[in-house]
Amino acid sequence: MRLILLGPPGAGKGTQAVRLSQILAIPQLSTGDMLRVAVSEKAKIGLHVAEAMRNGNLVPDDLVSKLIADRIAEPDAARGFILDGFPRTVGQASSLDKVLGDYSLDHVFELRVDEELLLGRVLGRAVEAHNKGLAIRTDDNEDALCVRLTVYASQAKPLVDYYTGKGLLKVIDASQSADDVTADLIKAIA
Ligand code: AMP
């Protein structure tokens, strides 16, 4: 089963990807997580990447496409995977098609949520992390979030059109509770 979760920051992609990963026993592949690890390990990934992430901008297509291509080639992804936060541009989507070749995607889900709800969710995530003494994402602040929402708004439509054209896109109402969103996803997969 090869799945993609699309959606703005705060839509719950990470939460749902972790749940689907457990239910379906396939890995969750998050480019955001991979990039955060690379930055924290001070890998040769470059300062410009850390800065783009801090500001809420996208990092270059070729960099994330290579990360995903390498990760998909690992044995645990042979039975399938859930992509969380990738692709974010049509360029990345077409790189993915080349990497997958004859292995087609099964579903592309767009998690749709009102913008006002997103602001509260993401800033709430920062407050919760602070209260629990957990690391706060450097981009979970109002300025970076505004950039992230604007970037998403400009890239989402072409990406949604791309997968609609392939007959793969399904819209999920992600303003519901996390449990209801999971139930809708499972129903759509079954
Ligand atoms: P996320 O955890 O998915 O919200 O990603 C956090 C940040 O990592 C984004 O704001 C981007 O700076 C970078 N990033 C993650 N995935 C991608 C991607 N597919 N393309 C470009 N930049 C990405």
Name the poorly predicted regions: none
Average of the residue pLDDT scores: 93
Which sequence of strands runs across the widest sheet? Answer: 2-3-1-4-5
Largest sheet at a glance?
A: 5 strands, parallel
Give the radius of gyration: 16 Å
Please provide the count of β strands.
Answer: 5
Verbal overview:
- This protein has 190 residues and is an alpha/beta fold.
- The protein is built from eight helices and five strands; from the N terminus they run βαβαααβαβααβα.
- It has a five-stranded parallel sheet, sandwiched between helices.
- The mean pLDDT is 93.
- Adenosine monophosphate binds next to α2 and α3.
What would you say about this model in short?
56% of the residues lie in helices and 12% in strands. With 190 residues, the chain is of the alpha/beta class.
Topology overview:
Layout: E1 2-6, H1 13-24, E2 28-30, H2 31-40, H3 47-55, H4 61-72, E3 81-84, H5 90-100, E4 107-112, H6 115-131, H7 142-165, E5 169-173, H8 178-189
Parallel strand pairs: 1-3, 1-4, 2-3, 4-5
The site of adenosine monophosphate has 18 residues, from α2 and α3.
Task: Describe this protein with a few key phrases.
190 residues; alpha/beta; five-stranded parallel sheet
